[in-house]
Amino acid sequence: MIATHRPHVRALVLPAALLLALAAPAGVPAARAQALPPDSAAVSPADSAAAPAPDAGAVAPDSGAAAPSAATHADPNARPVVGSKLVRLVGKPVNVVRSGPGNNFAIVGTFPTGTRFPVIARSGAWYGVRVSETATGWVHSSLCREMDDLSGLEFRPNAKLYTRTGSYVLSAYGGAYAFDQKSNSAVIGGRVGYYVFDRIVAEAGVSYTSIRRPAEIVESLFDLRLEAEQFPMLFYQMNVTWELLPGRQMVPYVSAGVGSTLLLGQSQPSTNFGAGTRLFLSKRSAMRWEVRDYRFRSPGNAVTPLNNNIEFTLGSEVLF
Fold it and tell me: Which is nearest to 259 in space by CA: 211, 231, 292, 213?
């Protein structure tokens, strides 16, 4: 009887064990872990002994050994160092410029040796360069040489302001001459000048005109007669010109000087002063117009006061 009822007992035990396994709390796995077979328990201490937990004293040597490796290998994600230089390609006849600091980046273009690019950044051994106004790229340091960009130090003079010191000026002019406020005639002449400073020009000139006096009543010992005169006149002068706005395209100036006037076979000392304007058409050529007053006495009459002889001229100049 007992043997016949054992199968039924086993059948009841298996479902009960299954229900206990499903209803077991979270702590049951820990209990099962303690109930591992002997060989498993032996393996676990062996693994723990082979890989002991690192302590603070063991970490320090490893960190010190890893520091040189980090220093020798640049971080590809490091922040680029911004600069203001140029690089010139010195590698192969055709040099590759890539889209990023590495050989795995796409090729932006190929450029011949000697091409120069402005540097906009740097990452490790790679230079970030500006290829064009709208494109940038990266080139390896083995393919280029770094050089200073001195374009910012280039002297860029103002187009409307530059020095003329040390230049010679050759000028020719023509115009009208009013002699003693009684006679008008044409006048021609020329000057040679030198820019001592930007504002000061020393000049030497000579002019010629033919004077024709209107008919006047001339009293003689026996009668009165009506006479008219016509005679050539040559005058030369040494002048100093002061430019009010030196170095500009349009330069107003004032001028004064001394000289001598030759007429009717006599020489009369004279002084002159005037004002005018130079208009520079280029760095080497200019137009010039001025008005000048020559003061001297007419020959043969020492009592006569100084005459004011007004000259209006227009001419051209060449600097060399």
Answer: 292
